[in-house]
Amino acid sequence: MLVYAWATVALAWKSSNLTHRGIIGHGPYRFVRHPAYVSKNIAWWIGSIPWFTEAFAKSWMGGVQAIASMTGWSMIYMLRALTEEHHLRRVDGDYAAYASGVRWRFIPGVV
Questions:
Q1: How far is CA 12 from the centre of its chain?
Q2: Cα first-last separation, the chain
Q3: Which domain covers residue 45, as residue numbers?
Q4: Residue 97 counted as domain residue
Q5: Per the domain annotation, does 16 fall within a domain?
Q6: 25 — phi, psi (to 5°)?
Q7: What 8-state DSSP symbol labels residue 25?
Q8: How far is the C-alpha of 53 from the C-alpha of 51, rounded, in Å?
Q9: What dihedral do alpha carbons 25, 88, 36, 16 form, nearest 10°?
Q10: How far is CA 28 from CA 4, 15, 39, 42, 49, in A?
Q11: What angle do CA 86, 74, 83 make, to 5 degrees?
Q12: Structural domains in the chain (count)
């Protein structure tokens, strides 16, 4: 949650779901392009461990369903990030330069 808070503070007034207010490259955004999405997902997965444990204790299929549910939510955020990048590339030439400078979308050295 600390990384999520850091990402939120770094965005400051540029945070918006419906408008484009510019590209930032400081804070955690200098390491990955979507630190808020990643940190939220990691927090949800860690917070879901008791749910997974309980679901698997009841039945194998329940555990698989619990993991599939969290995987679905993670996929939604991954698709959200990809869609966001697509739109930003269309409206802001600066985004392509930012994306080439910040190679990793989600996890440094991996993805």
A1: 17
A2: 20
A3: 2-6+25-101
A4: yes
A5: no
A6: -135, 25
A7: -
A8: 5
A9: 100
A10: 9, 14, 11, 15, 26
A11: 10
A12: 1
Which tokens hold the place of 108? Answer: 């440094």
Give mean pLDDT, residues 10-24. Answer: 75
The answer to the question of residue 37 being in a domain is yes
The amino acid at residue 44 is W
DSSP symbols for 49-110: HHHHHHHHHH-HHHHHHHHHHHHHHHHHHHHHHHHHHHHHHHH-HHHHHHHHHS-BSSSTTT
**Confidence at 45, pLDDT banded by 50, 70, 90:** very high
pTM assigned to the model: 0.81
Looking up tokens 């804070």 gives: 27
Residue 66 lies in a domain: yes
pLDDT tens-digit readout, 71-104? 999 999 999 999 999 998 998 888 899 999 999 9
